[in-house]
Design brief:
Order of helices and strands: EHEHEHEHHEHEEHHEHEH
Structural class: alpha/beta
Radius of gyration: 20 Å
Shape: globular
CATH class of the largest domain: Alpha Beta
Largest sheet: 5 strands, parallel
CATH superfamily of the largest domain: P-loop containing nucleotide triphosphate hydrolases
Strand content: 15-25%
Length: about 300
Amino acid sequence: MSGQNGHRAQVVMVSGPSGAGRSSAINALEDLGFEAIDNMPLSLIPRLLDGPPLPRPVALGVDVRNRDFSTDGMIELVDRLHRESGVAAELLFLECDTDTLVRRYSETRRRHPLSPDDAPLTGILHEQELLAPVRGRADVLIDTSALTPHQLRAEVARWFAPQAGVPMALSVQSFSYKRGLPRGVDMVFDCRFLSNPHWEPALRDFDGREPTVVAHIEADPRFAPFFERVNDLIASLLEAFVDEGKASLTIAFGCTGGKHRSVAMAERLAKTLADQGWRVSKRHRELERQTKGEHVVKQG
């Protein structure tokens, strides 16, 4: 399907755990000119998009409480929309740390929809586990743990308000080849040939955001020409992707453990692109996984 005058229809699906701010994000999108439909059953979304051309962008709230919700169904729908040539689809995922979600439920005295007869923590942990694969497919990830409603609205506007000259959002990620390629990535670069800080005892426990680790990696004589070529390649393609109508682009760097070299490269490229005026988000898959694992141990 396509929008009016042959333009691609912009569709933003909004998901995330209960209490993370999904409704606030949908309201913010509505204020930006989107037609907002909350609690949209998955089975009805294809019917909506296969109907008459959409006159304006659409924001669709997807909730695990919907009777036809399933993780596989959600991911299949996301993949389908990404393949549709007439749709510029993005998945916005609102996340929030467990402690903050528990506090929010305690303050409002609400029952969690997935554990109405039990403590909110039970439903929170279940919902986080249920939505983990959906989170992994997100085009835009916003952590609302430390955000006020006003700050969340500003963050949504930063990503989705019409911006002349910067129509495409970029995501730069790092990952470990041991756990496979991230899903939904457009471009992948292998960093495993660079000097590995893992073999330096003084650096092993730090990650690629630590200045001493960065200095070690950048001291490799192969680093500078590699980064320069990657940066030149991406710079030469960005405008072409914009002209093609692409709403978002995901670039990933991989190394053995996803902790040092890929993180340093992702951080460096993200800063370079942001300095050039692009909207850039960063994700470090293995560092996020490690943090969540430490949090689960703490909770347990």
